[in-house]
């Protein structure tokens, strides 16, 4: 039973387009070899789009089973729709479970997080021309045009990388969560005035001053400010607390 999407007068009636007649010869031969019988009456419409109606859904059984059939009609389409709906629900449940229960892999510390797929083709182009120029150079036959082409491609490729790194760094710093991670990439031994810290105490003081500058000596009264409605914080459940405890690093 299924949507064979083949047309033939054997099951589609006398309104089959001549252009499509004969496309189901392989299926007809298969039916003959295995003595299969079509349960739907000849000309039963199983597919409709606007004014077009055709017979493309077939139910094939052996002669023995055909004799035991009580009823069979075009309600097959209803069963197909129901089966698709159940499949969609099953896939939704499976994907939700996978997303919730599957541990997320940590990115490799050696991975280039700024890399994107748009850089793949420029990288290949750069590698190709670089290798071509290098082979000619090793063979003792330097080609100026080839060397120039390799230099231009290399400059374009590395300029693109620098732009991507800059954009990635700006997006990274835009997220407040990453501010402490960013401090690991900086040079804490350099003060704001350009001088160098002498020990870890001065490094800590410099970071403290940078992230938490001193308050003003005199703070003016701001006056009456508009008050917003307090935001209700839902009570934590034991399940949420348990989940966060297990997610915490040891």
TrEMBL record:
Domain Endonuclease/exonuclease/phosphatase as annotated: residue spans: 1-75
GO molecular function: catalytic activity
InterPro entries named in the record: Endo/exonu/phosph_ase_sf, Endo/exonuclease/phosphatase
Pfam families assigned to the protein according to its UniProt record, in alphabetical order: Exo_endo_phos_2
SUPFAM superfamilies: DNase I-like
Residues of the signal peptide: none
Protein's UniProt name: Endonuclease/exonuclease/phosphatase domain-containing protein
Source organism per UniProt: Talaromyces stipitatus (strain ATCC 10500 / CBS 375.48 / QM 6759 / NRRL 1006) (Penicillium stipitatum)
